[in-house]
Amino acid sequence: MVMTPAERRTEASESRLRLQTAVRLRWFGVIGQLVTVCFVYLALGFPLPFGICLAFIALSAWLNVFLRILYPVRTRLNTALATCLLAYDILQLAALLYLTGGIENPFTFLLVAPVTVSAATLPPVNTIALGLVGAAATVLLVFYRLPLPWYRGTEFDLPTLYNIGLLASVLSGMIFLALYAWRLAKEARQMADALAATEMVLAREQQLHALDGLAAAAAHELGTPLSTIAVVARELNKDAPQGSQLSEDLALLQTQAVRCREILKKLTRAPTEPDPLHARMSVTQLIEEAAGPYRGFGAELVMTASPEQGSEGAALQEPVGERRPGVLYGLGNLVENAVDFARERVDIGAKWSARQVTIEIADDGSGVPADVMDALGEPYITTRPARPRGQTKDGEPSGLGLGFFIAKTLLERSGATVTLDNRKWPEHGAIVKISWQRDVFERKQATMPAAASEGVGLQLTDADGGIH
Is the pTM of this model over 0.85? Predict the structure, then answer.
């Protein structure tokens, strides 16, 4: 999904942290702090500044009340406000830790919580700032703190080296959890955007399919005036002198009216009833239609088709499957990759047997880079530089690493399995293999299973491992 500059500014100014989430998390913190302080002071009888601790806890509680009064419950906090609230949580917890033993307090590790929340909901810059605040507070707690509440007449004091170890533990946990939460949140956002782009492609195909219904409606509306024209032309022809120019024109008008009636009969077919001439297509037709638009774009397309060696009987017949716009779009996208990254030539060869069909699309490129091979098929994985907006099709993400993801998604929804590899030396290039069981390929779409383990195979090779 390609965002406009205005959308990017809006996204940057708003966090993904809702007020309701922030308030609930703080209430959990308030309850936990209150229970812990009361248990240590009242149940265990350890000396601590009980009143001051309660004041800091009450401050967080009143902050929650104030936020719920000031903002609607489902408000999405802007980045600045969310950062300030999380910074307050760090400082409030640091103040309580200062009063109750500092780094020696076993609850010091909770300082990583606000930083982790920030990593999942705020931009990296804000998370880094909050991480620095949390790290600074932790370092100060090593050297500046009140004694840890302990039994009366006994002082609990850990060695300095051990306190440094606790500091290292908190800081490493803060970094690890923040990076982990940031990575998970980023992948979730990328997957959501990529799926939205895929749904946009499918919606476009559905809109094209809906034109069938509009055409049928138009045909019904045109049927009556066309019949009237035919009747009037026939009546006029009775009165026209035989062999005259007028008679010939009226005869031509009748002929064209009959032709229009035949065309309208095709258009009045129900939208769910496929055109028998185009409802099914062979493997050769599938390749030709998917790759045809990319002829003449720099790379030469060479297509071949034949049964596998040793095939006999029915296996020699070319597979014929249902025409599926998603398969055509996905296959065409892979062919486009090969053409874009090929140096001179792209070879597309189809072979079939009793159980499977293989379509191999190979170019003379250098293959898929090793550093992106394992990540291919995920959204936003690309070796193609982003193209200017004016060079992309309307609404189609290009150069963002979504093309291969969308193609893979569409093909897998048809029952295919998609794999990719590099060609073996001395050949070079990338190979994308798409496979169906032959009976799945030839079966009607309504009864097709969601996935298949073997069958119609497609291998695509692009020049520079170009996956977009």
Answer: no
Summarised one tens digit per residue, pLDDT across range 51-110 is 999 999 999 999 999 998 888 877 888 888 999 999 999 999 999 999 999 998 999 999
User: Which CATH number belongs to the domain containing residue 366 in this structure?
Assistant: 3.30.565.10
Are 380 and 402 a contacting pair, CB within 8 Å?
A: yes
Tell me if 392 sits within 8 A of 398, measured CB to CB. Answer: yes
> Which residue bears the tokens 């690309």?
382
Q: Is residue 63 in a domain?
A: yes
Same domain flag for 150 and 284: no
CA 267 to chain centre: 37
Tell me how far apart the alpha carbons of residues 289 and 280 are, in angstroms, rounded to a whole number: 13
Query: Which residues partner with 362 through β-bridges?
Result: 347
Q: Report if residue 273 sits inside a domain.
A: no
Contacts of residues 61-67 at CB distance under 8 Å and 24 or more positions apart, as own/partner, are: 61/27, 61/30, 63/26, 63/88, 64/23, 64/26, 64/27, 64/30, 67/19, 67/22, 67/23
Considering only CA atoms, which of 86, 89, 95, 112 is closest in space to residue 166?
112
